[in-house]
Amino acid sequence: MPVTALVSAKSCGVTTSALALTLASRRVSLLAECDPAGGTIRAGYLAGSVTAQHGLYHLAAAERVGPDALGNAFASALWTMDDAGHRKLLPGLTDPAQAAALGRTWPALSEVLHVLADDADYDVFIDAGRLALESGRLHTTLSPAPLIHEADTVLLTVRATDQSLALARHLIGPLRTELTERGSGADTLGLLLIEDGPYRAHQVAEALHTPVLAALPWDPDTANYLTAGGRQPRGYGRSPLLRHARTATEQLEAAASRRRIQRDPRRVTPQLAGVVERMNLARRGTTHG
């Protein structure tokens, strides 16, 4: 299954979109909330129900001990978002000041996420937040650059408005160069279109010279629920956002699979392979418990 990183030029619904894709996937799925500016799902959609023992920050200390410690910490840091145990969340930072401690953690976390996608068949989505550049490169502290570099698909999330397209236009070139020189290749870059505005997908693709790999409808009620939590809106399970998100996950998998055919299999260390075993055991325990 693919690892998909979602980014934006400005607030374009990256977290809401990533959450919708994770919840709508037909497969087991995991959302890693890796925005260095801080996570919002813990306080929003999950209404503060996530305990302090869960979250991204715990991985920083574990990574310094070694891969096995990181694998154990990763499994413990996850939060289950559904009764069946099929939807997992790695909650984000509660304090943006913690981001500096994760510089060494991003590459190891990237490897863990790819192991889950390749060997445990997880749909993995990364909320990488708003892109921050420094001298035309991804900022090493304000962006989780290794996660973006190694993703099977990088989705620049845009709205169908002049303002959103203008902001995105300035990022396309540097991001494409970054992926060519340091990442998985320029062809991993695509657009996730939020259909809020006058432009159609083909117009957005032409304006930014980048393919629209998936689109999500403007569905304020469902989006507000995924952003702020509270009372679930009527017809939530059949909402336009979730129905189209389910289709989008299939489209993203197909696009990533076409590219990955030409890649060499990833080498899995015994320690990281243990992550898969722990996740599968947890999944079976939740299912049968």
Any overview of this molecule?
By secondary structure, the protein is α/β, with parallel strands linked by helices. It has one domain (3-288): P-loop containing nucleotide triphosphate hydrolases (Rossmann fold), CATH 3.40.50.300. Helices cover 45% and strands 17% of the residues. The strands form 2 sheets. The protein has an 8-stranded mixed sheet, sandwiched between helices. Strands 6-7 form a two-stranded antiparallel sheet. Strand 6 and strand 7 form a beta hairpin. Helix 2 (58-65) packs antiparallel against helix 3 (67-77). The longest helix is centred in the middle third of the chain and has 21 residues, at 162-182. The chain starts with a strand and ends with a helix. The model has no long low-confidence stretch (mean pLDDT 90).
